[in-house]
Amino acid sequence: MSFNTLRWESISCDPRDTVFNEHLPQGGGVSHTIMDEHRFAVFGGLGSRRYNELFIFNTRENEWFKASMENAPSRRCKASLCCRKIETTTTTTTECSSSSSSSSSTASSSHSHSPSSTASSRNTSATCSEENHGHVVGKAWNYKLYVFGGWTSEGKTNDLYEYDVAKDEWKQLKPNNSFSPPARSAHYCCCVGKYMYLYGGIGNKKYGDMYRYHFDKNEWECVNAMQGDVPLPRSSYGGLLVLEGGGGGTKSNTQFFVTCGLGCGRYNDTYLYEVQSKRWTCVKCSGDIPSKRGRHSCVLHEETGNVILYGGFTGTECSGECFSFNLVTKEWKMLQQINPPPKRESACCVILNNKLYMFGGWGGDAKFFNDMYVASFE
């Protein structure tokens, strides 16, 4: 599949979610992450105030779910948010008959505002036979979201929170080794296996360091990421994208993708980091290389092996430009846009089911967006 154009349209959410829409964050600095093939989550942000609400958007149902506020992180912007997908098994006792299959199908199609209802109904498989004597063994997925750091009204922070989607519960995680990365904001995190990786950001200074958090041990450790073509320290670099398989890496050689960002000025360079060798490589790019910028949005289009870059702050104004980067040819290409949204920086962008979704952002001149757009690739 190749594409040169994005065709945008505005999304109007389910009328039943009017109450939620009134409380959605307005502005930028909103953290976001993809959960599964139909859902993404947003947290925090800065507009007319700082926010600490967590919302999950279901693209299939076209509606928002608001998470519990009990034990939630304090209000903040420019934190990191990432999702860990955990495989679980369930065993229930039932009668092995066609009627049980029918009732299961009916339950799967029923409407629910539960944050985990979509996942449980579409990611569970079950078997029933004489051998298991009416025991239905199912495989399901549980999702946990992690918020680290950010910029609160009292300054930068380095606390870590976990949100259990199935339980709709928050809890603060205090590392067993009493060690955490320095407080920061405008950084990014990503989940790879049993670890969550953190790179860059701004605190007392611009950071170019890397850390990883071990989920099972509940411990942080510093990663020696100072080999190869080490990037200059930076923040607001659009995302720490994980490349595996079609994205340019393999399961045994996972890579991170970083482009542009803010440091001592603005950058428009591109880097790949190999997790196994702990080595950076500066990518020699060609084509329509984006101008220097930060607070842009980057997202991986896995089907085509391209990275999509949208918007950002170029130094004088917000940008509405959109680029694609081919991970094989290392070529940038500016995309044409039909019915484009207003220019903005710090928007939340995700690709689900071959569509690009965009939420919120700053528009300059105190414009705080909490609108939603979706684009088709043509």
Automatic annotation (TrEMBL):
SMART domains: Kelch. Keywords: Kelch repeat, Repeat. It comes from the Eukaryota. Residues 93-128 are annotated as: Disordered. Residues 145-337 form the Attractin/MKLN-like beta-propeller domain. The keyword Repeat applies. Gene3D superfamilies: Kelch-type beta propeller. This is Attractin/MKLN-like beta-propeller domain-containing protein. It comes from Naegleria fowleri. The lineage of its organism: Eukaryota, Discoba, Heterolobosea, Tetramitia, Eutetramitia.
